[in-house]
Amino acid sequence: NSVGEINVMLDAARKYKSLVQVGQQQRSGVHWHSAIDFVKSGKLGTIRQVKFWGNFNYGAGNMPVPDSAVPEGVDYDRWLGPAPKRPFNKNRFHGSWRMFRDYGGGLLSDWGVHLIDMGLWAMDVKSAPISVQALGGNFANKDHALEMPDTLTVLWEMDGYNMIWEHNGGVERGPYDQGYGVKFIGSNGTLVADREKWRIFPERFGEELRMEEVPEHPSDHKSHLNHCENFVRAIRYGDSLNAEIEYGHRAALFAHLGNISYWSNDRVIYDEKKRRITNSDKADALVTPAYRAPWKFPAI
User: Fold this and answer.
1) How far apart are CA 97 and CA 8, in angstroms?
2) Is the dihedral of CA 16, 103, 178, 130 positive or negative?
3) I want to staple 169 with a disulfide (CB 3.0 to 4.6 A). Which of 69, 150, 230, 270 is the partner?
4) Residues contacting 110, CB < 8 A, separation 6+
5) DSSP string covering 187-202
6) Model-level pTM?
7) pLDDT digits (tens, 9 = 90+) for 8-23
């Protein structure tokens, strides 16, 4: 989707007073809750950077294949929806559609939203970033079929700290020997988390630790189940949603602005009230997609 489309989704949920649980299931993970609580406790000291990374083989795309007939049983026109009409190609279909601009935003909008969401949650972010700058390209897989960058770094300028995303498609090793993760860099120590665990790396001043050592906190791997149960309980008993649409909207906004910065090759500044990028017409033109007829951009 796009910035324009997530804004419409948010408006629709508010207008119709709907219960909308976004599929950011980490918000229902017990070990994620404890990690976020630890960051908010202040024990890490001053947080100056929040870093996210996601290294996955599928981010390198696939080898090109020729266009082919639409598989039996597939309503391809409906599958395309408002996206441009193109011949069927299996590289643009299920699984690898994420690597093409008509349908997805690459690793940043696929994996990025889950990890970015943890940073926004821990840092109590309730507004758009001050600015966004992205740099990258298809550096290592030029012969593959993909339109999204296999290598990307995004910097979100925040109030008093930075948020940074990086990915390397076709590489599955990363910092701390984790293919993906989030880390909160504080003056006393760094918290590193993924879906398996979270752990603390205390800073030292000479021989002294600046904070206490903390045991590793493993995941119980029940976040998906907990997320579904939370949604059902919200319907039945009025429980609060763990990932209401505002949270999904915020994480998606950060990811989309990163991609817009990359596509436009501009630093972007987004005005949340005006719902537009104010410093670059080229970037602002990418906020809302063009729909092919007879599809029409929804009005709420």
Assistant:
1) 23
2) negative
3) 150
4) 98, 104
5) SSEEEEE-SSEEEEEE
6) 0.97
7) 999 999 999 999 999 9
